[in-house]
Amino acid sequence: MTSLDKPTEETSADDARAVTEAALFEAFGGVRGMVETVVPGLLFVTIYTINKDLHLSAIAALAVSLVLVVVRLVRKDTVKHAFSGVFGVAFGVVFAMMTGNAKDFYLPGMLYTLGLGLAYIVTTLCGVPLIGLILGPVFKENLSWRTRNPGRKKAYAKASYAWGAILLAKCAILFPLYWWADTTQLGWVLIALKIPPFLFAVWLTWVFLAKAPAPIDVFAEMEAEEKAAEEREREAAARPAE
Predict the structure, then answer these.
(1) CA distances from 177 to 15, 164, 181, 186 (A)
(2) Which residues form a coiled coil (predicted)?
(3) Mind spelling out the 3-state secondary structure of 16-57?
(4) What tens digit of pLDDT does each residue of 122-171 get?
(5) If DSSP codes are grouped into helix, strand and coil, which group holds residue 187?
(6) What does the pLDDT read at residue 125?
(7) 3-class SS of residue 143
(8) pLDDT, tens digit, for every residue of 199-232?
(9) 178/132 Cα distance (integer angstroms)
(10) Cβ atoms within 10 Å, residue 3
């Protein structure tokens, strides 16, 4: 193992924690991303609770999600979280309109949560924890953690298991309610379960990564290798011809 293969030990613990916090904030959208996730569903269940009008509730939820995207576009902000919200709401609207059952507005999101929870578990069992695939580019380490940073891979595995367990526990609550509860009960429980489990999973991820070795900046390594190659070429060109 060369020196480049070892995680740098120069970064202090406080700096590592700060970098981890910033990366998690960026990856998961921060406070604004959470708001954009909650508002459309909250509007849907509020309107439906008041007047039981599926069409009005669905249109209002879709409209507000589109407004959130437009606001981000106008402000030239990152739109990936807002766009994912639009697609989720749109699928919910289509399902509910097709079946005429207001509870089906929530079904695509519930199925996505189930699939994502399983993906976290399965990818970790396969040796490629999903949270590492998500956060690797954010930390500028890409997939270097898989073979060159075993301590970090272990932290990603723990975080992925935590995400999977939390999401599957959430599904264990929601799917029985989908069958047995009415639309408003399901909607309000789902809204209540939006933020707390998410924050708990993010906090656990922060705990695991803050204690893990620092990420290997593969982009900095590539830049250093390119500069070294250029320097060698200049030195070779400067030598007198034999």
Answers:
(1) 44, 20, 5, 6
(2) none
(3) HHHHHHHHHHHHHCHHHHHHHHHHHHHHHHHHHHHHCCHHHH
(4) 999 999 999 999 998 888 888 999 998 999 999 999 999 999 999 999 99
(5) helix
(6) 97
(7) coil
(8) 899 899 999 998 888 888 887 777 777 777 677 7
(9) 32
(10) 6
